[in-house]
Fold these 2 entries.
Entry 1:
Amino acid sequence: MLKIGCHLSSSKGFLSMGKTAVEIGANTFQFFTRNPRGGKAKPLDLEDVAAYRSFAQEHSLFPILAHAPYTLNACAADEGLRDFAKNTMADDLSRLEHIPQSMYNFHPGSHVQQGAEKGIELISDLLNQILTPDQSTTVLLETMAGKGSEVGGRFEELRAILDRVELNDKMGVCLDTCHVFDGGYNIVAELDSVLEGFDRVIGLSRLRAVHLNDSKNLLGSHKDRHEKLGEGNIGMEALTAIVNHPALRELPFYLETPNELPGYAREIAVMKEVYQGECS
Ligand code: FE
Ligand code: FE
Ligand code: ZN
């Protein structure tokens, strides 16, 4: 069955996000765990969480995807910045335990002149400090566009991080279609071979979620500018092949396109239309 949703504002709490998701035809959603710039999180409203959990059960919204603030840098050269990333992520993970079986996605980081190898080492060190054997949340590394000194623009870099993480059974990967396209993986003309490469390097069993975005820029541009579905250089034909691909079609898809709610509702309806199979 097609599992699809979009990024929603978390300012009104979980129940409100759940209701919005259902209203726009989604059966999952993504949200920022706190201000995307990484400020302090509001105390968790346990009543809201409880109300959300029964609503989510009723509407089969599981699993949902939490997104870490994008300004965190797990491989910053400055130790204070790394500590901030570590403490923020650890706090996010402990809160997410109130919503069992969630996923938590983060941008691996930017190595800022330390080199990708050092970046990979710092990112896995941080993960080794915050993952716990009994957590129910799966932590996802997002595939990046390779902008500037971003780590995670190559599948090999994500694999190298996973290899160094002791509790890597708690980890997976989120594939962002705009990012991999901008990173030079031709998901338009060679989707099968890109996914074969992913399988060879990382393993498809690690792939847990897809960020479904079109791209404003060309293949290999390393820019990371999302576009509305069908209006960018990936295009509707390739996006249709992606949601229907045997290796991807059972995964949850999350739109991060430049849209307000009505635009998201339209894109969700379009993807349901082109999906070959059941849509709720
Ligand atoms: Fe992201
Ligand atoms: Fe993304
Ligand atoms: Zn992006």
Note: The longest strand covers residues 3-8.
Entry 2:
Amino acid sequence: MAQTITVIPGDGIGPEVTDATLTVLKAAGADLEYDMQQAGLIALQEQRNPLPKSTLESAEANRIMLKGPLTTPSGAGFRSINVEMRKAFDLYANVRPVRTIVPGGRYEDIDLVLIRENTEGLYHSLLRRSAQRAVGAKDDPIMIDGFPGLDGEVSWDPRPISRAGSERVIRFAFEIAKRRQSRMGIPQKVTCVDKSNVLRGCRLFRKVFNEVSEQYEDIESNEAYIDAFTMWLVRDPEDLDVVVLPNMFGDIATDLASVLQGGMGMAASANIGDEHMLFEPVHGSSPKYAGLNKVNPIAAISSVHLMFDSLGDRHGDADAIMCADILEKAIANHLADGGAVTYDLGGTASTSEVGQAIAERCAVLLAEKFASA
Ligand code: NAD
């Protein structure tokens, strides 16, 4: 493997969960170099730029990023660096697997993956600025005079959805379903979730979905509206395999889905483009827990599992496949054996204790692999 990756610990609880993750990574036998970089509030404070040039250059060169959460202060005129990074590296598919690996939870035997379109829709700020300019408004909100049903101070976000943007993420979802089908030996279904009965952009998304689905005859396809889907997601999640959604619906559905697997402390994600990949926990920077060594690092550690899994899939890298296997078993065994867990899973262990315990399991599994080789 012998690769350098860009590591951005991030804000709030980011450095703590990243430390625990790096401890685990080293124990899993990964042949990696780490290029430590900053982004977000910490970068603004220390380098006067929330997305420094050195971070962008490092990510451009290394192509693989491991990132902690970044704070986006609400209403402070601070753009979302997460959104900027997705755009900068065209990370169009946000992959969020949902698996129940914590024993005794409310849900069991769930193994699904949500694929969120990551670059268009309501997060397309460029079009928002153009729309503002088109009506001659410098700032948002603007004043509208006498338009029926919209009078006075108005703020709006355009929601562009393109054929090309939809097609690449939908195709990505079908490819994931194909891989799952051959790996698991279980027929897979891709569900398109939108609001195409009301919203035009969703109508295009659904149309493209139907076209692409015809090219994957061995994968079942299915459709749902987002409102009904949220109920379905918590009522019958075992019916779902791969789900593809436009940006904002995907953002909301994936946080909801994290509850199925034990909460935000368990949910990992990958942001995938054709050239670059970024792996991160789904959760945010949780400022109230920052520095307390208290939060669950498993979401961040699982994002590294996703990294190895993606590298294995993309490049057929044998070391990456081995590291993915070790990490998956270490995390699952730790939880199944009643290993130390943090407060959110009903335990009292610290972030670093959980990281250390999973690292020790990785070291044992690695030694076993070498012994049997
Ligand atoms: P959050 O995910 O930080 O926290 C919400 C709650 O989830 C916490 O209070 C806590 O109870 C729980 N939680 C989160 N992570 C946990 C963990 N590892 N272990 C145990 N419990 C955990 O969401 P928020 O409070 O809405 O956002 C805080 C900041 O993070 C905001 O500035 C937001 O913009 C940012 N954010 C960043 C990202 C990202 O970088 N990808 C994602 C979401 C939010």
Note: The pocket of nicotinamide-adenine-dinucleotide is lined by residues 17, 69-72, 82, 264-265, 280, 283-286, 295-296, 299, 344 (CB under 6 Å).
